[in-house]
Structures are given as C-alpha cells and as structure tokens.
Write a structure and sequence with these properties.
This protein is an alpha+beta fold. It is built from eleven helices and six strands. Strands 2-3-5-6 form a four-stranded antiparallel β-sheet, with no helix packed on it. The protein has a two-stranded parallel sheet with strand order 1-4. Helix 5 packs antiparallel against helix 6 and helix 5 runs antiparallel to helix 11. It is elongated and about 135 Å long.
C-alpha cells in the first residue's frame, strides 16, 4: 500500500519544526498607559469631556488669514506629497504580498529551429532544418500550510496602516508649524511696534534735551547721550522689521511657495489662545488620538506578523505546478490530437540545512518586534511627558503674564515721572535713560510671554493629537509568543 501524502508530511514536521526554532522568541512587552502615573501632575487643570481638539482646531484662534494659509499649506506642501507617496508605496507592498498568496497562470508560445549538420548526423535527420513549435498554459500554486504567506500579507497591511497614519501625522505637524510660524510673525510685528515706540521716545527725549541745552540747563554731554539713543533705537527697529521679513519667508516655505508669496501675507490679527483644559479620558484615549502612538502600535502588529511568517519558513510546504499544451516539429500536426501534452508536478519542500539563514531571519524578526515595542513604549512616555510639560508651561505663564503687565505699567508710570522731572529741571537725563530702558524691556517681556502662551496652546493641541481619530485602530492587546 502506498503511503498517503499526510503520512509523508507528518514525520517531516515532527523532525524539523520544533528543534530549529528553539530559544528564539521576542522579549518586548507593551506598557500599560495606566502604569504611567500622571494624575498629580495634571490634577489641577480643569477637565472637560469636550476638551479634545477638533480637526480644524486652528479656527478657534479667530484669524481667517491663518485658516486660508493652513488650507494652502495642506494642499501644496511637498513634504505632504512625499508622505502620501510613502503611503502608496506601502499599499503597493500589500498588493505584492497578497499576490504571493494567489495561484499564477501563464501562457506561452514558442518556436525554435535547428539544422543539424550532416557531418554530425547522417541524412535524412542531418542536413535538414526542423522547427519545434509549441503552445502551453501553465499553472502554479504554493500552499500556505502554516500561514506564513498570510502573516506576511498581514504584516504589509499593518505597515500600510502605519504609513497612512504617518501621512496624517505629517498634516498635523504642518498645520501646527504654520500656526506657530504665523504666531511668530505676529510677535515680530509686536516687537516692531515696541521698537517704533522706543524710537519715538528717543526722538522726544532728544528734542527735550536740545531745549534744555539751549536754555543753558544741560551740557553738551547730555545732548550727545540723547543723540546716541536715537540711532540705537533705529537699529532695534530695523532689526525688528527684518525679522518680519524672515517670518514671512518661513511661512512661504511652509506653504510650498517661493519667498515672494510671503510678501502678500498681511499682519496677523490678535489671536486668542485656547482655554487651558484637559479631556476627561486622558491618558487612556490618548492612545487613539495621537497619530504617532497609533502608527507605532500598527508597527508592533506588523512585526508580530513578520515573526509568524519567519516561523512558517521552518516547516515543510507543498507546491503544485501543472501545464498543458501543444507541440510539434514543423507546422504540421500542432493542433492535432497527437500534439497534445500535459504535466502535473506536486512537490514537498523542507529546509534541512541552510547555514543558519532561517534562524538568523527569525532572530531578526524577533529583534524588530522588540524594537517596535520599545519605540511604542518610548512614544507613550514621550506623549504623556509632552502633555504634562505643555500643561505646566501654560499654567505657569498665567501669573507670569500678569506680573509682566504690572511691571510694564509700573515702568510706564516711572518713565512719565522721570521725564516730567527732567523737563522741570529736577531729575537728570540718566534717570530718563534708565527707566526708558526698563520700560522697553518690560514691554518686550509682555509681548514674549503672550506669544509663548498662544504658542503653548498650539503645542498642547498638537500634544493631544490635533483632532486626529484613527479610522481603524490596531488590536489593544499585546501579541503573545510561545
């Protein structure tokens, strides 16, 4: 009695499968977000179920020009085109992996001729030209007994998910960068205003000093001091206006346009920072709201399926090929019944010795899984740190801004008093210079802190995912490996 195919395969599995993968398994374990304590750090912030950012979060800043700039950037930035191209590449790899699981059918037609010289073979075979014509239809299929091909396809699908989310993350990053650059442009205009006010104060002080010198109250020394303050203030104003040009060029580049595009960007309106609130479900829902975390989780799943594919290569597999066709010498009889042929060729393959290639490949897949898990865990830690740092910075800015505004008001009062005393001949010009410098620094400090608060609000929106919501989330549980 002839042994069945199953009886032939079973001993091969028992002989080859278990021992060859011994000792190879990944070590990485996904961290539970609840294991990262953050309640005390975030506990003093108001919690709201609606505190998750919207997809068009920038509209809450209240500047239509900013809305238009972000829309333009999302439509024309080359970096987004590159991210989209990488996503399409990943989808193409899914198609390749899926094709490896399918049977292949091919057709061919050939004609080859040969004239054997009579010095080799005597006539009638020698000295006669003969042509072999053939038509054939072939079929081949490799069975996926252990799921290795399916696992490779699933790994490619997971990588495609990650690449698609990377493209969405690039859009979030770009919109945040445009908004933050726009804020810097607004800040540059404010600093230019402050520098312009300083120019006016310097010119006013110079005029007052000239009057006192003409009246014989001050000397040429005070006049030279007042004259020196005017070009110094002019230089600060020129530097501030140059920064406006720099920020416009930066914005134009983010839009994917040339520097001339920045010339058409008008002065930003005064922007309204977002209220300092946190979602009620932080940090649990953060896993599905931050694109970097979702993409990292998909890559863990891809690495897990890659391990399954690498393990399947250790076991025997069955390949089936068949062909049917027509063949004949010369043109006669090609389509006759005598010209028909067929081939059927099942085959069983089993790796016995490959120099350690399969073990090295599996070890590499295990290491890739551990790397993906480590990157996911690090992204999770970084995400919570990012949120906590933004919250802490925003919370600390509130009293800082109030203190800076009070300092600016006090410096303005001191400047008016010093100037009045100087006009009346009671104080010195040095007193005016000191308090004028204090006023300049105080005004700049207020502008800097208010810009930091708006920038921090955008950074918090980005840290909370910027309105991203995954259409398809990866499995929540870590893969188990035996």
């Amino acid at each position: 009695m002839r042994p069945s195919l199953a009886m032939l395969v079973l001993p091969l599995v028992l002989a080859a499968g278990c021992a060859s993968t011994h000792g190879l398994r990944p070590e990485g374990r996904l961290r539970d977000p609840d294991s990262l304590a953050a309640r005390s750090s975030l506990g003093q912030v108001e919690v709201s179920a609606a505190a998750w950012p919207r997809r068009d979060w920038w509209r809450s800043l209240g500047d239509p020009q900013l809305d238009a700039l972000i829309a333009e950037a999302l439509a024309g930035n080359p970096g987004l085109e590159a991210a989209d191209a990488r996503s399409r590449q990943a989808l193409a790899r899914v198609g390749v992996a899926d094709a490896d699981r399918q049977p292949t059918i091919g057709a061919s037609a050939s004609s080859s001729g040969l004239r054997i010289p009579e010095t080799v073979i005597e006539p009638p075979t020698g000295g006669h030209y003969s042509a072999l014509n053939s038509l054939s239809l072939s079929f081949s299929y490799g069975f996926d007994l252990w799921g290795g091909k399916r696992a490779a396809w699933e790994a490619a699908v997971d990588e495609a998910h990650a690449a698609e989310i990377d493209a969405q993350a690039a859009r979030l990053t770009l919109s945040a960068n445009v908004a933050r650059s726009y804020i810097e442009l607004a800040h540059a205009f404010e600093r230019a205003d402050i520098a312009d006010h300083e120019r006016e104060r310097a010119r006013h002080s110079l005029e007052l000093t000239r009057q006192r010198v003409d009246a014989g109250i001050d000397s040429a020394l005070q006049l030279r001091q007042a004259e020196a303050a005017v070009p110094a203030a002019e230089q600060q104003w020129l530097a501030a206006t140059a920064r406006i040009d720099d920020e416009r060029i930066t914005l134009a580049a983010l839009l994917g346009a040339g520097p001339d595009r920045g010339l058409a960007i008008s002065r930003p309106q005064r922007l309204t920072p977002a209220a300092l609130q946190l979602p009620a479900t932080l940090p649990a829902e953060l896993l599905g709201r931050r694109p970097d975390l979702v993409a990292a989780r998909w890559r863990v799943e891809a690495a897990d399926h890659a391990i399954a594919s690498a393990r399947a290569a250790f076991y025997p597999n069955i390949d089936l090929s068949a062909a049917v066709g027509l063949a004949a010498l010369g043109g006669d009889g090609l389509f006759s019944a005598q010209g028909r042929y067929y081939q059927f060729a099942p085959a069983i393959s089993l790796p016995i010795f490959d120099g350690g290639r399969l073990r090295a490949n599996l070890a590499g897949s295990d290491a890739q899984y551990d790397l993906a898990v480590a990157q996911y865990n690090q992204n999770l830690v970084d995400a919570l740190r990012d949120v906590a740092a933004r919250i802490t910075a925003l919370r600390s800015l509130v009293p800082q801004i109030e203190a800076a505004r009070q300092a600016a008001r006090t410096a303005a009062d001191a400047h008016r008093l010093a100037e009045e005393r100087y006009r009346n001949g009671i104080g010195s010009y040095l007193d005016v210079l000191v308090v004028q410098q204090q006023l300049l620094v105080a005004e700049q400090r207020v502008a800097d802190l208010e810009t930091q608060r708006i920038d921090g609000s955008i950074a918090l929106v980005q840290a909370l995912g910027g309105g991203f919501e995954a259409d398809a989330a990866p499995p929540a549980d870590a893969a188990a490996h035996s």
